[in-house]
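Crash report, auto-generated. Payload:
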Amino acid sequence: MSYSSELSLRGDTTGFLPPTVPSAVLAPLCDGIRSLNARVAEEFMALAEVLQSNSMRAREITAESHKATGSEANLRTSHSMGMLQRILTDSAGMSAMVEVSTGKMVDILAHVKTARSPLKRLTKMRSLLQTVGVLSRIEGARITNTEVDLSSLSKDIDILAGQVELHVNGVFNDSSSLSQVLLEGVQELNDCQSQERTQVADLIQRTQAVLGPMISRSEASRVAAHDIDEQYASFHGSTGKVVMSLQSEDIARQRVEHVSEAIDRVAALLDSGDSMQNSAGVLAVQRAQLVSTRDLLAASVSSILDGLQSLSPRIRELVSRTETLAHQTSEDGESFAAVIDGELAKVSAVFNQCSGTAKSVLAIVDSVLPSVEQMIKGASALEEIESSIHLISLNATVKTAHLGEEGVAMGVIASRLCSIAMTSEGDTKLVLDALATISGALTEITSQEAISESSLMMTGTSDVVSRELSGLSESVRVCNQEMTAGLTQVLEMAEGLCLQLERGCELAVRAASITDCFDEQLSAFDEVLEGLGYTKDLVAESVKGNQTESLSQLYSMESERKLHVEVFGSGDAESSMPPPESVQGSEFGDDVELF
Amino acid sequence: MARKILIVDDSTMVRQMVSFTLREAGFEVEEAENGQVALDKIGACTVDLIVTDLNMPVMDGITFIGHARAIASTKFIPILMLTTESQPEMKQKGKAAGATGWIVKPFDPPKLLGVIAKVLP
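Recovered output after restart:
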């Protein structure tokens, strides 16, 4: 806005000397203009106070909301919820483990049954050996060749027959008792299993019904806290604009001071008899500076108002969400705890039952393991016996050879011994193979994940589980109380912040009246200049006469130089300005330069 | 421990706005209304960075920087000019006196913090 269009000067004045003492006329004008600074400072300081107190309140709200939604009790609840999840997983794992173990025990039973056929055949080995022993003794008595001793052969066969009886009977009896234990165990597990499967499924369903809303509430708390953080970040971003706008007070203050100083200088020059033509341009620039400053402040106040008004809906949204969450927390908390109390007793019972069944499996395995080991020992001993039979058979064959014609019958005995050894060797191998499979299956039962990973099952007792579950109930109650109280506090604080923001908006609206004060001073300015005899023509003459060169000495602010060009065109002011500096390419823009 | 920044400006509003911006960012702040008061402050406490205005009563920013650079504790710390002035010859004077950088008012808070982050050792 140029001086010529803004300043309404009437008529022409031919005389260039002022009609009265200029300083006496201009001094009150300077006082009026300086008073603008006090008014601007008052309004802007009040707005700065609003900004700072709002920011502090927003920070307090953030801290309180974090406290409310991330309390110690909340952490304890999370721990207990984790424990509950573990109990569920363990229960399901143990149930599956029992099912797998039952299947494996059925397999073991089948292998035991398979092993019984060769065992039955092995039981006959004793009588076969005894028969061979009797025949050996008879044949020994018949042979007259005394150089060959056949008595030791008969004795050895008798001893082996005794050992065979001992070991084969042992293995056979062990297999019988193993079958019995496994049969009873499988029966017991089958009974438990169908009942448990239903209970575990029911347990998971019921517990998830409790856990689901708890996890949802926990998630809602996290979202609420995140929202509050976002609102605060957004609040902080908006305060940046307000901070920039508030600095206009400092710029306006300096401009107004410069205007006052310029008018003082003009007054002094006029008092000393200087031509009005010389000062017309100066005063035109100062008037334009006042107009520009008024517009700057109006824009700043408008920006501050916009900034404060943009915060209100966000805070109101925050209040609304907090209110909903606080209400929900208060309403749901006690009922949650009550449900947890009721349901978790059942959870504890089912867990203990699953744990008991799983322990039964382990007990069965523990009880059959010695039998299996004993069977393996017995079967291994049979292998050694078979080796001995082979040796005796070889010995008999050698003696037969020594006897020549007389030992033909003894050769038949030696051959029979060899045949018995070979047959029993095959059966013993079948038994040992079956035992190896059984032993492997037992190891698989005890090394299942459900057992190795369930420390609860291995170490936990019903007391531990009950304690954990009652801890969950207690922490939900405490968390509920703390969270409700914290959110209520947040709600009150956020409502307070809303009121503060409203008050800030009122102050910004009031601050907009600063422009009226500027307009009053501008009217006074026009009246005084008109009274002194400044006219449009005089200003035009001042510009034409290139009388403005000395003005550049008054300019220390970029705005003044721009205004000079605006009022006088791109004449001497531009030429009096220093050449533009080469662009430094600062990463922070043109208004920042790092040396 | 928070870094301490000294703000030197005769405008209460600017001091408040810079303080607000810096405190929100976690800095500790000291304030002085002119160069002379600032010299008294740096004699009494250690600061990590100074943000100073140019035109101030009693002692202007350029003179203050000259004195500050003669004091051992502030000889090498960053000193930023924050002023409405943008004339190259004034910037040259500031640079010659020992200023680290020049920021024209009004300052943008994120930008001010960015500059401080860049120059603060």
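Post-recovery validation: The interface with chain A takes residues 9, 11-14, 16-17, 20-21, 24, 55, 84-89, 91, 94-95, 99-111, 114-115, 118-119 of chain B (CB under 8 Å).
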